[in-house]
Specification:
The structure is a single chain. The protein is mostly beta strands and about 160 residues long. It has 2 domains: about 20-120, Sandwich (Immunoglobulin-like), CATH 2.60.40.420; about 120-160, no CATH class. The protein has one helix spanning about 1-15, and strands at about 20-25, 30, 35, 40-45, 80-85, 90-95, 105-115, 125-130, 145-150, 155-160. Strands 1, 2, 4, 5, 8, 9 and 10 form a 7-stranded mixed β-sheet that branches. Strands 3-7-6 form a 3-stranded mixed β-sheet, with no helix packed on it. A hairpin with a 3-residue loop joins strand 9 and strand 10. The two termini are about 20 Å apart.
Length: about 160
């Protein structure tokens, strides 16, 4: 059974792009500025409150952000606010359009580089910790699938073959 599971999981891990996490809470997005690559996924996680992500019309100026593409999520108190795969390079501005949040500083920027190859990605990342594939913090170095988390919010999946 484990071999069948790995046959389905292996292609996903080998060819998936990097995932990034942005935390949202009382009048903040953290990090408020994030640089990613084409094909990367950003997950907005709710630390508490009612929030959304608005990449369409600025809540401060009522004018278009003029992003390469526009989208808006529904306000939610759920732990998962939204996720998006960025397929167009450029600079994206966004805010939380819940009343008063953007004016309180809940704004952000995502810069999407025109890089798609893993070989082109800089390796100057600051490592935080290693997780098992199911999410637990790594206590045993015998696991064959590891997930590395970095300070910049990126996550890297590695398969160890001995």
């Amino acid at each position: 059974m484990k071999k069948i599971f790995l046959l389905f999981l292996l292609p996903t891990l080998l060819f998936s792009q990097t995932s990034h996490t942005v935390n949202a809470g009382m009048l903040y997005f953290y990090p408020s500025e994030l640089t990613i690559n084409i094909g990367d996924t950003v997950f907005w996680i709710n630390d508490g409150g009612n929030h959304n992500v608005n990449f369409d019309i600025s809540s401060l100026t009522s004018m278009s952000f003029n992003n390469p593409e526009s989208f808006v999520s529904n306000p939610t108190t759920s732990a998962n606010i939204y996720s998006h795969i960025f397929t167009i390079a450029g600079t994206y501005s966004y805010d939380c359009s819940v009343y008063g949040h953007a004016s309180g500083g809940m704004t952000g920027t995502i810069i999407v580089n025109n890089i798609t190859s893993v070989d082109e990605i800089s390796t100057n990342k600051k490592f935080i910790e290693v997780y098992e594939i199911l999410g637990g913090i790594m206590n045993n170095s015998n696991s064959k699938i590891k997930v590395y988390k970095y300070l910049d919010g990126t996550v890297e999946k590695r398969i160890v073959i001995k």
